[in-house]
């Protein structure tokens, strides 16, 4: 299949197809001319991918058969679900397309920098969102609504360090009723600031048929879900995490020559959990990079998932030279010595591990981030999240996801000579 994502994109930050986009390169069937009209009147026009991207559809029959195209659809207006789009294309002679190809054809967007979220029709889902960076974002899910204080909604505006975890609904169904509503298919979730979506802040919420062969893993979860909670009320657990600088494909750089947004590899500062104390104490920059070698394009920030009432000791090591690191939590209970902002809370390369003691007493979703070189380190990726689950919530939810909204690579505050792109 041709790559049509940028052929007619008029500018980097205008995610829309316009009437002035030339179709002189379009390949149409023998029954249509370059404008999609028929010359014989006896054959239904076969749509090209360019026409699909323009929102085209065959109209009329016989001598009046023609192709009608909507030249003005944009990201925020062109919201039909991919399941319907796929069936439509199959019915018009196209080979079985991949869902991301469908999304690109519809919206003119580059591939997302976010994971695919999955649930079967009728499963109870919660989407948690944590927003970092200096900008405001609007979180939106296609095809679904949820309740908030008695009102239906499908979009939420969020500021820096703000959390939203009220997006709870039945997949492919309603906010309160598991009966099918929007149904199966690939549904877009994204920031509704279109320039942010255009640079990577979008993804796919995949609603599967009830008897799908795409089943969860042995623990009953899909890999991108919030991890199973650790601990139990009244118990104390130890968690080990390393701060490291790792090259990850995490941002996009605009190419003036090709007028495309290309995925670029950046040195990203991240928290990487370790399975045990031995691995934690032996960790180096090389070992952490090897640990993440197979996740260079699918890595997601650390999520510390705890059961309500659990006491946790978080052990932090830093393997980055010259870059101080700490951990500052929101929402959990701790004393002044474990705040993550004092000199004794800071981890340096070659220094001893720093230990923080917190108690997960309040259910919810909470930011967790560095508090030393906070603007630079957060801009480079040193953030995470805490999820505290009550017993009732564990029983209620069947699928649980957390999405980070982040403005990556804020060179304007770092004095960098290399442009980092507008990575969202």
Identify the notable features of this structure and list them briefly.
single chain, 424 residues, alpha+beta, Immunoglobulin-like, 3 domains, five-stranded mixed sheet, four-stranded mixed sheet, 8 helices, 20 strands, 13% helix, disordered N terminus, disordered C terminus
What does this 3D model show about the protein?
This protein is of the alpha+beta class and 424 residues long. Helices cover 13% and strands 31% of the residues. It is built from 8 helices and 20 strands. The chain has helices at 49-53, 82-91, 99-107, 194-198, 277-282, 285-291, 374-380, 391-396; strands at residues 57-59, 66-68, 117-120, 124-131, 137-141, 146-148, 151-153, 155-158, 163-170, 185-191, 202-208, 236-255, 260-274, 303-307, 311-318, 328-329, 354-359, 364-369, 383-389, 399-405. The strands form 6 sheets. A 5-stranded mixed sheet has the order 3-11-10-5-8. It is globular.
Percentage of residues in helical conformation: 10-25%
Any low-confidence stretches, pLDDT <50, length ≥5?
A: 1-42, 70-80, 410-422
Number of domains: 3
Number of strands: 20
> Strand sequence of the main sheet, in spatial order?
3-11-10-5-8
Q: What's the mean pLDDT score?
A: 78
CATH class of the largest domain: Mainly Beta
Q: Give the N-terminus to C-terminus distance in angstroms.
A: 28 Å
CATH superfamily of the largest domain: Cupredoxins -  blue copper proteins
Radius of gyration from the CA trace? Answer: 24 Å
Q: Just name the CATH architecture of the largest domain.
A: Sandwich
The largest pleated sheet is described as: 5 strands, mixed
Structural class: alpha+beta
Give the overall form: globular
The proportion of strand residues reads 25-35%
Order of helices and strands: HEEHHEEEEEEEEHEEEHHEEEEEHEHE
Number of helices: 8
CATH fold topology of the largest domain:
Immunoglobulin-like
């Amino acid at each position: 299949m041709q790559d049509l994502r940028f052929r007619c994109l008029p500018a980097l930050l205008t995610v829309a197809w316009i009437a002035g986009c030339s179709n002189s390169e379009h390949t149409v069937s023998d029954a249509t001319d370059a404008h999609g009209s028929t010359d014989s009147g006896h054959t239904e026009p076969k749509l090209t991918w360019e026409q699909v991207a323009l929102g085209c559809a065959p109209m009329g029959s016989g001598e009046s058969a023609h192709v009608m195209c909507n030249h003005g659809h944009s990201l925020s207006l062109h919201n039909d679900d991919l399941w319907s789009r796929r069936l439509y294309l199959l019915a018009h002679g196209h080979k079985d397309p991949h869902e991301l190809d469908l999304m690109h054809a519809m919206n003119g967007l580059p591939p997302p920098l976010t994971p695919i979220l999955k649930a079967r029709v009728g499963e109870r889902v919660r989407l948690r969102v944590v927003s970092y960076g200096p900008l405001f974002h609007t979180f939106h899910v296609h095809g679904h609504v949820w309740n908030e204080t008695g009102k239906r909604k499908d979009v939420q505006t969020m500021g820096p360090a703000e959390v939203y975890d009220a997006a709870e609904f039945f997949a492919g169904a309603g906010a309160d009723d598991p009966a099918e509503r929007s149904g199966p298919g690939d549904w877009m979730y994204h920031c509704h600031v279109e320039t942010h979506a255009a640079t990577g802040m979008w993804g796919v919420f995949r609603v599967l048929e009830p008897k799908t062969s795409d089943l969860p893993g042995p623990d009953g979860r899909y890999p991108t879900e919030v991890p199973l909670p650790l601990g139990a009320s009244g118990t104390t657990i130890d968690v080990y995490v390393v701060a490291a600088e790792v090259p990850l494909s995490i941002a996009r750089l605009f190419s003036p020559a090709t007028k495309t947004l290309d995925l670029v590899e950046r040195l990203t500062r991240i928290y990487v959990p370790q399975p045990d104390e031995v691995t934690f104490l032996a960790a180096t920059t090389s070992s952490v990079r090897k640990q993440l070698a197979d996740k260079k394009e699918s890595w997601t920030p650390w999520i510390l998932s705890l059961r309500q009432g659990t006491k946790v000791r978080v052990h932090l090591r830093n393997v980055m030279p010259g870059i101080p690191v700490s951990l500052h939590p929101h929402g959990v209970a701790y004393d002044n010595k474990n705040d993550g902002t004092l000199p004794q809370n800071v981890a340096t390369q070659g220094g001893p591990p720093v230990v923080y003691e917190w108690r997960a007493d309040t259910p919810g979703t909470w930011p967790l981030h560095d508090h030393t070189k906070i603007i630079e380190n957060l801009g480079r990726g040193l953030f995470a999240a805490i999820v505290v689950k009550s017993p009732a919530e564990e029983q209620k939810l069947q699928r649980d996801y957390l999405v980070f909204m982040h403005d990556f690579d804020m060179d304007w505050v770092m004095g960098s000579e290399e442009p980092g792109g507008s990575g969202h």
